[in-house]
Fold:
Amino acid sequence: MSDLRGVGRSVDELFARKEDAAPGGVLPPFRKKPPRPFVPEEHAETPCFGEAPEDGRKSPRVSGTETPCFGEAPEDGRKSPRVFKSPEAELLFAKEKALRLLGDMDRTKKELSERLSRAGCSAQSIQKTLEYLARYGYVDDARYAGHYYARYCAERGERRIRLELLKKGIAREIVETAFAEIDSAETEGERGRCLALAKKRAAGQDLSDLKVRSRLLGYLARRGFREADIRAALREIEKQ
Structure:
C-alpha cells in the first residue's frame, strides 16, 4: 500500500509541475496532429490542381479527366500522332513496317492497312505501300485464302473458314473463287474430313450415350461442318 501511495503522490506532483509550467496554470489542449506549416501568401496556390481552400482543408480530389500539369492530352487517350519529315519519309517508313510485318507471318491487305494506320501512316501512303507489295507478290489475298484453307480444313468446316476469311477483309468473290479451285482439286471432300475428325474425337467413347453423342455433335457444329455431314459421320461411326 505504501508503494502505491507513493506512486499516487508522484503522479500528483508531476501534474502539479506541468500546471505550474503552463501559462495561467492551464494545460494546452491535446493535438492529434502537428500544426500545419506556415505558407507564404505568394505560394498559397496549389501548383497543379488550382487554388487551395481558404479554410485550410485539403484540396479536393481531381477527376481523372483533367490533365494536372503537362498540358492537355488527346480526348480519346491515344498517343500523339507520328510526325514525318516528308511524304517520301512516310512512304519509306510504311514499306519497311509492312515488310517487317510480313516477315513474321503472311497477312491480308486489310490487316496490313490496319497496322499501318495504327502506326500513324496516312491513307495515301498505305495505298501506295499495298500497291508496291502486290506488284512484287508480297501480299496476295487469293494466295492467303488458299493457304488458310489448306492449313485449317482438316479441323474446320468450309462454312467457318469462309467466315474467318471474310472477317480478315478478303473480298467475297476472291474467297468463292479460291474455294471453287480447291473443291475441283480435292478428292476427299468436306464429308470425309468431318468423318475423320469425328472418329478422332469419338475414339474410346460410347456414342450410345446421349450426352456423349450430343457433345460430339456440338463440337463438330462449332467447327463449322454442315449438319448433314455431321449426321452422316455419326451413322458411319455407329456402323463400325
